[in-house]
Design brief:
This protein has about 260 residues and is mainly beta. It has one domain. About 5% of the residues lie in helices and about 35% in strands. Strand 3 (about 40-45) and strand 4 form a beta hairpin. It is globular, with a radius of gyration of 17 Å.
Length: about 260
């Protein structure tokens, strides 16, 4: 069933994109740290890959997705203008520090998705999943309204301050989406970038920055704090901020979870 209201909505089987020819690995990063890259996949006329940045002590400080400049060109179009999405599975780096993120799915939404007049613009949803693809595939809902069911509502300490999980946000193969009603796009401002949390059976299952295509093309240098839950069930470091930036030197776009703690 098509979700009635919420962000981060994507359906269909995961598109396993073609691997890029450059092998993933590690390279020297800023401040004597190291950057670990995942295997790149084709996206549009370019590629996308995951990246984990570690400090000099080997501790992960950020987790992100890098889109080459050409990735924003030649993107697939929705058939007959339908509201649909195109998901691309990105593996995490094989080397480097382990993080709470199991894998990433980048969802390209050429027509956007509900709620109306909020996210109905071409954009990307960057799903940083805490659970495996096998778990993700087993997430099932009979109705998008199930997100409002008490069985899907996380405990207060597991929900970030200001966030709610309203009815109409349950999406099979994903979870129930938590939004912050104070976000600019819900208060008369155009949607540029935002941050969503995802839950299933009351547990946090994904972290989701979103970014509009036009915003990315503007070559932004955007960052914002992330409201955090009081408690996480999966041990590890979680973001205190996120960013959507253009890297002039590398001619690429980087969407990152930052300030891991």
């Amino acid at each position: 069933m098509k979700p009635r209201q919420l962000p981060g909505i994507a359906r269909g089987a995961i598109v396993m994109a073609m691997a890029f020819s450059i092998a993933p690995g590690a390279m020297a990063g800023e401040n004597n740290g190291t950057i670990y890259t995942g295997k790149a996949v084709r996206l549009g006329n370019g590629t996308a890959h995951t990246v984990v940045r570690a400090d000099a002590g080997g501790k992960a400080v950020s987790i992100g997705v890098v889109l080459t400049e050409k990735a924003l060109e030649g993107l697939p179009a929705a058939p007959n203008g339908a509201s649909t999405d195109f998901p691309f599975l990105l593996p995490m780096p094989a080397k480097g520090p382990k993080t709470v993120v199991d894998h990433v799915v980048v969802n390209w939404n050429p027509q956007g998705h509900p709620p109306p007049k909020i996210y109905e613009v071409p954009h990307f949803d960057f799903h940083f999943y805490l659970r495996s693809p096998a778990y993700q595939k087993k997430v099932r809902f009979k109705s998008d309204a199930e997100s409002g069911d008490p069985r899907q509502q996380p405990a207060a300490e597991l929900l970030a301050a200001g966030y709610v999980v309203p009815p109409g946000t349950a999406v099979s193969k994903m979870g129930a989406h938590a939004i912050n009603p104070a976000s600019p796009e819900f208060n008369g401002q155009p949607f540029t970038a935002t941050f969503i949390y995802g839950y299933h059976n009351k547990q946090l299952t994904f972290l989701e920055p979103m970014a509009a295509l036009d915003f990315l093309k503007s070559k932004p240098a955007f960052s914002a704090p992330v409201s955090r839950p009081a408690k996480y069930l999966k041990a590890g470091a979680y973001p205190s901020s996120y960013s959507v930036k253009y890297d002039n030197a590398a001619r690429s776009y980087v969407v990152s979870l930052e300030g891991l703690q």
